[in-house]
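User: We ran a pulldown and think these components assemble together. Before we commit to crystallization trials, I'd like a predicted model of the whole complex to look at. Sequences follow.
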Amino acid sequence: MKSRTLKTCVGLVLLAALAPIPAMVGAQDTSTPAVGALESRLDDERTLFAATISDTPPDDDLLELGRLVAMGGAENVGSGMACITCHGGQGAGDGSGAFPRLAGLPGWYSYKQLNDYASGDRPNEVMTGIAQRLTEREREAVATYYAVVQAPIHRPLGEVDQGLMQWGGQLAAVGSAEKGIPACVNCHGPQGTGNPPSVPYLAGQYANYMAYQLQLWKDGVRDNDPMDVMSAIAEKMSAEDMRAVSEYYRRVENPETTGE
Amino acid sequence: MPDKTLPKTDVVIIGGGWTGLTAAYELAHEGQRCVILERGNHRHDATSFGAPEEHDELKYALRATHMMDVRKSTLTFRNDTSQRALPMRRLGSFLPGEGLGGAGIHWNGQLWRPLPSDLEMRSHYENRYGAQFIPEDLSVQDWGVTYDELEPHLDFFEKICGAAGYAGNLNGEKRAGGNVFEGPRQNEYPNPAMKQPVSSTKFGKAAERMGLNPFPFPSANVTQKYENPYGAQLHPCAYCGFCERFGCGYFAKADPIICVYDRIKEHENFEIRFQSTVMRVEKSADGRTATGVTYIDADGLEVFQPADIVCMNAYALWNVHLMLVSGLGEPYDPETRTGTVGRNYSYQTIASVDAFFEKEIITNPFMGAGALGVIVDDYNGDNFDHSDLGFVGGAYIACKQYHGRPISYQPTPEGTPRWGAEWKRAVRENYLHHADMVVHGSSMSTPGNYLDLDPTWTDAYGRPLLRMTFNFPDNDRKMAEYVTNRAVEIAQNMENVTSVASSNLAAVGSDYTVVPYQTTHNVGGAIMGTDRNTSVVNRYGQMWDHHNVFVFGACLFPQNLGYNPTGPLMGLAYWTLEHLKNDYLANPRPLMDA
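Assistant: Here's a predicted model for the assembly, 854 residues in total across the polymer chains.
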């Protein structure tokens, strides 16, 4: 019921919302999906953060604004930097470790990360400044936008030691009784699907990014997850454990998170 | 004759749950070679209890996969001696464990201390209300150990669990927001209290307006990352709603595997043998000591394990069963009221109160934890004046949020049909708008409630089954009704409440049965005390008749207090171990004169 209302509301305003940015409208031949295509994914549970934090349906032009912010245009001259510069228009990111995949992350999760970057709860030299220059509504909008775009994973993903993969898969599935590491699947779900709204997916995320985040948790730099549970887990992991589980999840094929 | 006899060990421990693993930890570090015999299998939080597999309500909560196998051994049950007892062929009223960690794996983590007056129950009531106050048909006794003696041990076990809560009595200073009725604590809880959901917050506010003293549930669901005194590292609770009947794959609910076993398993003095079911404790020729235990091993062989000390750490009921089949102590005879083994079995009264909210109040019951909620303890123990009430004992009232699981959590207001379209509609409409309250009460012992061996039925090994003869005494029924009415009053005083319903499993006119789940708090049957004519073990947990047999667990409780037993029984375990280590080992003998 809720999702139907949500869709209808968005649909009603499409005409008005599209007017100021004609270049974006109906760009079917580009890789950027049209608003109509995105709209159909708005009832995906990954975007439901807007419905859970408030009973009011999202404003009609939220999605359009989100795409605008991603492109670098927003009220305070945007963030000064467009999301797409590093994360891509589809939220594909890259494998450097600095720029994670954003496509299909739960809207609430991305929104919270932006708030945490802005407040310094998740310190990051680049993202803190960007997030601080986004308005509350722009954070919500761009998080919604990236929740509904899709970015297929390009393969092959490169060679990896099979022993490392085996160990990573084991940590993911059953953790380690010896080290007291609980399994990732406890919270991140089977096949690394994530558990919206607050738990991100792991399947298809970049290995370098995940390994780096685990290290940040271990070092106490990042502690913005619910109950700080990731610090307690990461502290028990060696660098090899982190690498293993990250390389493993990078290679998990999961249509729900990789769009394949 | 056994199939084989093993070399002698210093200590043999029957059962690998909370008390057994703790005994092994403490005694192994005293240089004692410890062998634990566990009838179930190895399992571990990381490899055995991880979600999403563990979050299978049908498999674990309803089909009791972590619990004991009643096809091998069970008990028979009757309400009174006029009836013929029949075997309990499915788990129902209570859920004993099996396997590493025992029932400590699937507990909720509700971690209580006894009230000082609970431990001196008979003398306390007689002092306050007069010698005739306790009804004659109750065999209520003092425990033989005081709160002050147990306090350091209760404190230590809370540290082992990383308990979360707020002290209501810190070194004698009463503090609002905690349990102002509790005995003095030397320390604050090791971790801060849990975050409270909507329903229990509203309950707490209503109780406060009524002049009562609400406080957060004392919890072994850990609230922040924590290292216990044994070096175990626990993680913060995720409020996943799968505590009771489930193991915790998050390392967040304190359990005997992560808190104790992982920290002792590599020790040179420690050994545990799985699939090893103890048949009996063997006695010396003069009967004054035990020589070891005989068990069936994983290959089905009968093995004799000699030992200098025998620790009985099975579940409360099975400790009593083992004593009876081994001829330890003197069996209780309800006709003559002589003998002690099986005497003073008691249970726990449970009533529930449901409140339903207006639709704008959303309670999200799926965000739950085993010890999540707010408590009112004003009507527990002797925290209130019993002069004109005609009963002893009391209950705590909890507004709790354990879980919102699809099969078992279907709250509907009174008058709803029990099936069909109307029922479905009521479940849909009320699932998110419900407060779940329990009245968790004491149960007094009586001469007629007891445990013995069944004359007819045997277990898979040919031993007579344990026979339970039990019904709630009138005292408990009166108490449960009184406190349930107080709970209903609080529910009616909560804001935004549209209707209230209640149900009392110890109601006047109804008989106790082993079928509906009530609680896994079976206590007594091998009780402690200071008089060998009315107790099986002395105040140190040592058997009067066999001084090298030490007994652990809730079977020691002379009657049941209004609290969950794990905290009190672990306090007793550390108390027993202190005297075993510091007194008995150097000079094995009866620690009390008979």
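The CA atoms of residues 35 and 244 of chain B lie 29 Å apart. That may be worth checking against your pulldown data before setting up trials.

User: Thanks, that helps.
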